Amino acid sequence: MASPSPSHLWLMRAAFLGLALLIMFFHLIPLDTVPRRWAPPDLLIAAAFAWCLRRPDFAPAASIAAMMLMADLLFQRPPGLMALLVVLGSEYLKTRAGGLREASFAGEWLAVCLTLLAITVLNRLVLALLAVEQAQLSLSLFQMVMTMLAYPLVVLVTQSLMGVRKLSPSDVEAMGNRA
Q: Which of 46, 93, 159, 167 could be 171's S-S partner, Cβ–Cβ 3.0 to 4.6 Å?
């Protein structure tokens, strides 16, 4: 069965927020005091997209917005911009989740990559229009590509360790097309 009980639903929503907090915690640990010349993948966005495409009911928009706003504040980004873009991207992917349910992983990955590209371009465009100082273009593009490459690993971890799997068509019918 897709969603056996409301307690399971809330447990998985809490697990999503816990995973986000864990990612933020490890991102903030000062392992090296010298600035890096490369940007690591944004695992927070990759995890949000993986959960949105696999089980949209486990990652509501309010949770994603709160998680990304907190990340904006902790990572000292302009507050709200990346949160808005990720919420819009995740909601777009949720609307496509039904069509991607029958598609192969390559189709899902392509949809995520195009959404990441749109988020990166819109983020840089808005920051440029507002004359906000931003990182080098090469650094932003490198982070985007690294996030795209890390997405299959994030999906593997969330599917194998946390049990967040795609819904089958029979599960969607059993839930009454809520997902």
A: 167
